[in-house]
Amino acid sequence: MNKTVLMLALVSFLSVSLLVSNSYALGTSGRSGFMMLNSSDLIGAFVRDYAGEFAGIVNEVMIDSGGHAFAIVNHGDYGLYGEEGANTPVPFEALRISQTKSGEEKVVFKMDAERLDFGPYLDPTTPINRQREADIYLHYGIEPYWIGSRTAEKGELKEFNSLNLVSAAVENSCGKVIGIVKEVMVDSGGHAFAVINHGDYDIFGENGVNTPVPFEELRISQTKGGQDVVFLKTDTEHLDFAPYLGYPLKTNSRQYEASIYEFYGIQPYWTRSGELSK
């Protein structure tokens, strides 16, 4: 990359940084209650029902191959299910997530706790397929996102554990490792981004730069040993100009999320026909 390109990249980074800073200063979220959350911060959070009663704990965050997230809620009558309880995938649309003043995630199940008790649960011996995922959505009265949407992936469904994705190598189309997955972020509508740590460390420092990438721009596979490998569909130089995040890896700006989608030529999901606005 020559000096002119590097200077343009720096100008791009500074412009996005200013945008994010202004969003924090003005308190603008674009839509009420919008947040982008680190999946690792959600794990371990208590889940309460709409009456404030304890309903379970977020045991994991899973992402499907279309980039839609589920909170895996551990719950149940432990005398009935055993000491490990039951793990039930819940679409983010059925949850309300906020933060306490101390910065801890607060998760509220919008429905009666009995709906959770009768929900489809994870069976380690049965992989989740497209029909199984549809059953999860329909149990909570939510239309599956791929119905009526031209942009939804119609191929094979895969589920990815967010913890396994963190630290996974990211390769370009030539098979060269260009970074690692630093974090998996989920917005309040349940749409996921992989935050890729990359860059010229001589320019950006030893910590590199963290860039959120929509799952639509990634292809994820597993090695024979079960390790996740992430492939970037776009070229590496394109990634260098993309909107990035400072520390902490959080934002409450809908405008910033829109800039991510638009940079990759993807229509923001809340403007797509056939999908609910979040």
Structure description:
The protein has nine helices and 14 strands. With 278 residues, the protein is of the alpha+beta class. It folds into two domains: 3-32 and 161-271, PRC-barrel domain (SH3 type barrels), CATH 2.30.30.240; 36-139, SH3 type barrels. Strands 1, 9, 10, 11, 12, 13 and 14 form a seven-stranded mixed β-sheet that branches. Strands 2, 3, 4, 5, 6, 7 and 8 form a seven-stranded mixed β-sheet that branches.
Which key terms come to mind for this protein?
278 residues; alpha+beta; SH3 type barrels; 7-stranded mixed beta sheet; 9 helices; disordered N terminus; disordered C terminus
Write a concise synopsis of the structure shown.
This protein is an alpha+beta fold. It is built from 9 helices and 14 strands.
Tally the helices.
9
Distance between the termini: 39 Å
How does CATH name the architecture of the largest domain?
Roll
Pick out the low-confidence regions: 1-33, 274-278
